[in-house]
Specification:
Low-confidence stretches: none
Oligomer: single chain
Number of strands: 0
Distance between the termini: 11 Å
Protein name: ABC transporter substrate-binding protein
Largest sheet: none
Pfam family, one: EcsC
InterPro entries: EcsC
Structural class: mainly alpha
Strand content: under 5%
Order of helices and strands: HHHHHHHHHH
Organism: Halalkalibacillus sediminis
Helix content: over 70%
Length: about 280
């Protein structure tokens, strides 16, 4: 194993330990119980339909993003940067021949750009208009899915491959979970990596009860933006803008950090035959 790979694995291990040591506070515990309680009161067919609609929406968003000119251009730019390190690179998969340090640098450029987009989009949402508020959650889903796709591409994985698509959706789902739930999701993802072909046969939802909180958190954020909308500073609702920008940036950071650690871990272990 190369020196850079060992260093990055130590960083991932430290991050993994922080996830496993995370302890929910009393508010989080009560809030989780309340959310599950309220959702359980809905009829079974309504619960089923909710997850079905969420899954279809996320899946359609993923496939739509992959076909956009912006995503194609971003992939071509990644390949172009990769060729500055190795002129023989032709396909996304060829990027794996580059050192993990250089691939991480490339991924960090994509992460920084997408966090800026999320911050800006949240700030614009905070300026108010019901159309902007209504589009906020779909936009955040799209921005974070795009971030996962580009991070995976930087590490040499073809996001058009059905296996990679399913795995990327699982990474997105885990990254958007509340932090107290992420360690279990991380362990499940590590198991999926070692038996990648098997995930095509899994009959399960992308979203589940652990994903009830993101939509609710977005609703609370929207209510906060509306409440502080009249607090103006030189004609700008500065508090609402700050709430939108910081909230969206925080989610983008959480998802992109999770995705980067996942693809780092996966690439290193694949290169080294999944040796522990």
């Amino acid at each position: 194993m190369e020196l850079g790979e060992e260093r990055i694995l130590r960083e991932v291990s430290t991050w993994e330990l922080e996830l496993s040591d995370y302890v929910s506070n009393d508010f989080e515990k009560v809030y989780e119980i309340w959310v599950k309680d309220q959702f359980a009161k809905l009829p079974d067919n309504t619960q089923h339909r909710f997850f079905e609609v969420m899954d279809q929406w996320i899946l359609y968003t993923y496939t739509f993003l992959q076909s956009t000119n912006a995503q194609v251009d971003a992939t071509n730019r990644i390949l172009q940067v990769g060729r500055t390190y190795d002129e023989s690179i032709e396909r996304v998969e060829d990027l794996r021949s580059i050192s993990i340090e250089k691939l991480t640098y490339m991924a960090d450029q994509q992460v920084a750009r997408n966090r800026l987009y999320a911050f800006s989009q949240g700030g614009i949402t905070g300026t108010g208009g019901w159309l902007l508020l209504g589009l906020d959650f779909p936009m955040m889903i799209a921005l974070n899915l795009r971030s996962v796709q580009l991070i995976g591409t930087c590490f040499g994985y073809n996001m058009h491959n059905p296996l990679e698509m399913i795995l990327a959706l699982k990474v997105f789902h885990a990254g958007a979970m509340p932090k107290r739930m992420q360690y279990l999701a991380w362990e499940e993802l590590k198991g999926s990596m070692e038996e990648l072909e098997g995930i095509m046969d899994e009959q399960e939802w992308i979203t589940d009860e652990s994903w009830l909180e993101p939509p609710l958190q977005n609703l609370f954020k929207t209510l906060a933006i509306v409440m502080f909308k009249k607090k103006m500073l030189q004609g700008i609702p500065i508090v609402s803008v700050g709430i939108g920008a910081v909230s969206n940036y925080k989610l983008a950071k959480q998802v992109s950090d999770f995705a980067k650690k996942f693809y780092q871990y996966r690439l290193i272990h694949e290169k080294n035959g999944w040796s522990k």
